[in-house]
Specification:
15 strands, 2 domains, alpha/beta, six-stranded mixed sheet, UDP N-Acetylglucosamine Acyltransferase, domain 1
Length: 257
C-alpha cells in the first residue's frame, strides 16, 4: 500500500511543476486523495461489499469533487490534475502513467447492465480539460485527447483526437507535415489543429506541396536514368532545369501586396 502511495506521489512531483514537496502533495492534492479512497472503494466492490464501496465513493466525491465509480479499474502512477468535475464510469479502465485534467468524463453510451460501457485508456494517455470520452472503446498507448474534445470512437496509439466530434490526427501525418513545412521556412505547429477553415486550408496546402515535391523528385530520378542511356541522351535537354519561367510580379499583383 505504502509503496504504491509513494509511486503516486513521485509521479505527481515529476509531472506537476507546481508541486514542491511530498508533504504538500500528500496533503493538498485532491487527485491523490480520490485515488487513495478509490482503492478502498474498489476493494469493497470486488469483495461483495457493494453498498460500502458506493458509500466510500460518495464520500470521496464530496471531499474531492472527483467522482469515480468503485467498479472502475485504475492502474498505478495515474495523475488526476486539479480534478474538479472528473467523472469516471463503472467499466472504465485507466492504464499506468495516464494524466487526466479537470472536467473530464469517461462515460458510457449504453444502458445495458454488465456490458463494457466506458472507455479503456492505454498507457501514458493524456486527456485534456473538459474532454468527453464516451463509449466502450480503447484509447491507445501514448494517445492524446485535446481539451473539450468529444470522442466517440477508438483512438489509435500515439494519435491525437481533437474537436467535436473528435477528429483523429495520426502522429506520422503530423510529422510529415512539419517536415514539409520546415522546408518552406515556417513551422507547421503554428497551424491550429481545430475546425477553422483557414487552418484546414493551410494544412491542405502543406500536404499538397509535400506530395508535389515528392513527385517532382521521382520524375527527376527517372529523367536522370533516361539521360544516362545512350539511345535517349540526345533527346533530353541539358538546360531543362533552367527553363522555368516564374513570374513573381504577376503573383504579387494577384494577392494584392
Amino acid at each position: 500500500m505504502f509503496t504504491r502511495l509513494r509511486s503516486d506521489i513521485q509521479c505527481i512531483l515529476e509531472r506537476d511543476p507546481a508541486a514542491r514537496t511530498r508533504w504538500e502533495v500528500l496533503t493538498c492534492y485532491p487527485g491523490l486523495h480520490a485515488l487513495v479512497l478509490h482503492r478502498r472503494a474498489h476493494w469493497c466492490w470486488t469483495h461483495g461489499f457493494k453498498w460500502l464501496g458506493r458509500f466510500i465513493s460518495h464520500l470521496s466525491r464530496w471531499f474531492t469533487g472527483i467522482e469515480i465509480h468503485p467498479g472502475a479499474k485504475i492502474a498505478s502512477c495515474v495523475f488526476i490534475d486539479h480534478g474538479m468535475g472528473v467523472v469516471i464510469g463503472e467499466t472504465a479502465e485507466i492504464g499506468p502513467g495516464c494524466t487526466i485534467y479537470h472536467g473530464v468524463t469517461l462515460g458510457g453510451t449504453s444502458l445495458y447492465k454488465g456490458a463494457k460501457r466506458h472507455p479503456t485508456l492505454g498507457r501514458n494517455v493524456i486527456v485534456g480539460a473538459g474532454a468527453q470520452v464516451l463509449g466502450g472503446f480503447t484509447v491507445g498507448d501514448g494517445a492524446k485527447v485535446g481539451s473539450n474534445a468529444v470522442v466517440t470512437k477508438p483512438v489509435p496509439a500515439g494519435a491525437t483526437a481533437v474537436g467535436n466530434p473528435a477528429r483523429i490526427i495520426a502522429a506520422d501525418s503530423d510529422a510529415r507535415r512539419e517536415e514539409a513545412a520546415s522546408k518552406m521556412g515556417f513551422s507547421a505547429y503554428g497551424v491550429t489543429q481545430n475546425d477553422d477553415p483557414l487552418s484546414q486550408a493551410l494544412r491542405g496546402l502543406i500536404d499538397n506541396a509535400g506530395a508535389q515535391e515528392h513527385q517532382i523528385a521521382l520524375l527527376w530520378q527517372a529523367i536522370e536514368k533516361l539521360a544516362a542511356t545512350p539511345q535517349v541522351h540526345d533527346c533530353v535537354p541539358g538546360d531543362a532545369a533552367r527553363q522555368e519561367n516564374f513570374e513573381a510580379d504577376k503573383l504579387t499583383a494577384l494577392i494584392g501586396k
